Amino acid sequence: MSKNTILRPHAEQAYAKELKHLQKIDERPRPTNWKLSPWAVVTYLLGGKLEDGTEIEPKYFGNRRLIEVAVATLATDRALLLVGIPGTAKTWVSEHLAAAISADSTLLIQGTAGMNEDALRYGWNYARLLSEGPSEKALVPSPVMNAMKDGKLTRIEELTRIPSDVQDSLITVLSEKILPIPELGMEVQAAKGFNVIATANNRDKGVNELSSALRRRFNTVLLPLPATFEEEVNIVKVRVEKIGKSLDLPTDKAPVEEIKRLVTIFRELRSGKTEDGRTKLKSPSSTLSTAEAISVINSGQALATHFGDGILKAHDLAAGITGAIIKNPVQDKTAWNEYLETVAKNRKGWKDLYESCKKIL
Questions:
Q1: pLDDT tens profile 187-244
Q2: Is the pLDDT of residue 1 over 70?
């Protein structure tokens, strides 16, 4: 399949040129089996201009020290746990860390409530197991096992969604760096370069708390929401343009003014007050993250492209905004309606947005 026909290439595919160039010029010490030095990994994630004039595109906008701590953690024997509310780029950061360090972001386990130990340890090819009995050929390795053998990073998404007893099967892997296979009387020992990047949502309800024994094996880095209005607008703008290219949506005219209005709404509802601090607001149950803002703009772009004149307008945004805010049909609808009547209705230049949202509400 052509790279241009893939909806979402892996990070190591999408940014292959940057990674190759960084490998070429990177003369700093690299941990065993790392494709780049820690400095080059941070440069890849945060972007910037290299000494030879090459521009590296930023993948993450935020506190540099957080990324440095994350990378330094992975260079030790401690695993990394990225924590934050939904939409704070946990998955995005973990993917790019794996791409930069191991040139392979595909060793991924998606945590679910119904997951069993096989997904973290290993499974069996039951047809072969029945015909030949337990053997290495009948073994189906997990991404964790493959990462241990090859000295790569493995990613575990939504660690706190995994049942507690399954979580604890990681303890031996993280502390002893071995994966026992008692059925074969053998074990897999981790090669240098192996480590784990896990992500966890600290706002979701009904999650399984990590045991203290497992938590001690991780170094936790909290990824916050963007600190400033300008930073969040820039993140949404950059990501909308990037995603728009893969979806064949127009990217030559970034809807900056609409992005600013959307980010303003999200930030005010998240904080429970208007920008000037004069009006208190009810906050909805939804997270209203930067990722959701990106999704709303992309949805609006699609509506404008396929059912309008191609220019994003208020009525293209209205449905997406309402859907992002109203998760609880009673509580959230009340909060959103109050915002429209007390803030949006009286804000200069927002009449079109107010009327479009009221029609849907």
A1: 999 999 999 999 998 876 567 888 999 999 999 999 998 989 999 999 998 888 877 6
A2: no
Work out the angle between the directed axes of helices 38-46 and 16-25 (0-180°, nearest 10): 140
CB 341 within 8 A of CB 347: no
Coil, helix or strand for 28? coil
Q: How far is CA 119 from CA 38, 110, 286, in A?
A: 30, 9, 30
Q: How many whole angstroms separate alpha carbon 257 and alpha carbon 225? A: 21
253 DSSP 8-state letter: S
Question: Which residues of the chain form beta strands (DSSP E)?
Answer: 48-49, 55-56, 79-84, 108-110, 122-124, 139-141, 153-157, 178-181, 186-189, 195-201, 218-222
For 331-345, write each residue's pLDDT tens digit: 999 999 999 999 999
Domain residue spans of the chain = 3-222, 229-360
Query: What's 3-222's CATH class?
Result: alpha beta
The pLDDT score that the predictor gives to residue 246 is 64
Q: What does the pLDDT average to over 135-144?
A: 94
**β-bridge mates for residue 124, sequence order:** 139
Closest residue by Cα to residue 269 from 343, 216, 201, 329: 343
178: which 2 tokens? Answer: 């071995």
